[in-house]
Amino acid sequence: MILAGGVGYEVLLPSVVSASMTAGPGEEAGLYIYFHQTEKQPKPVLIGFNSLEEREFFERFISVEAIGPIKAVSALCIPIGEIAAAIENKDSGALRKLKGIGARTADKIIATLRGKMAVFAGEHGGEPAGPAPVEENFHLLVLDVLVNQLGHKAAEAKELINQAIKRNPAISSPEELFDEVYRGETG
Q1: What is the pLDDT of residue 124?
Q2: Is residue 129 part of a domain?
Q3: Which of the residues 14, 15, 85, 129 has an alpha carbon 20 to 30 A from that of 30?
Q4: 62 domain residue, yes or no
Q5: Structural domain of 30
Q6: Based on the domain organization, do 108 and 143 belong to the same domain?
Q7: How does DSSP assign the chain, residue by residue?
Q8: Residues 116, 139: one domain?
């Protein structure tokens, strides 16, 4: 339970997140929240993460058919780097060790996400299907946020990104790209 502004919110935490939390009951905690609500599930679900990277991994993970937010919260019982490496290395045995993940679901996870998780694998290895330039990765991340979280149309978001890069070709991070995109919109 998180108390914010005098209102209590129930926030689900994957076990890998709760195990790494340093704040105890009554202490301040910082979390990156994923909000989920659908027509089939009108009651909002809040899921907390220690970093934006964990939250982004989660968002990709629930894009797999048969994995919803609640199942994903249960499944994330080991660090995301290890899960990402298992996906990139097509190690369905490692994925079957996740709570609630059977052989068919593990195969679906690999089929859906292989080649998209190398950025999360980090020190745990993982062979990307094809090396994508770092520049392209953060362009795609910004595009995804503009379309899926901020409501821009895909073509419009691509144009905003292209214009931002033309104005400032030295952009080297998603944050710099967002700044330049919105600087152009207000300018």
Answers
A1: 52
A2: no
A3: 85
A4: yes
A5: 2-124
A6: no
A7: -EEETTEEE-EE--HHHHHH----TTS----EEEEE--SS--S-EEEEESSHHHHHHHHHHTTSTT--HHHHHHH--S-HHHHHHHHHTT-HHHHHTSTT--HHHHHHHHHHHTTS-HHHHGGG----SSPPPHHHHHHHHHHHIIIIIT---HHHHHHHHHHHHHH-TT--SHHHHHHHHHHHHH-
A8: no
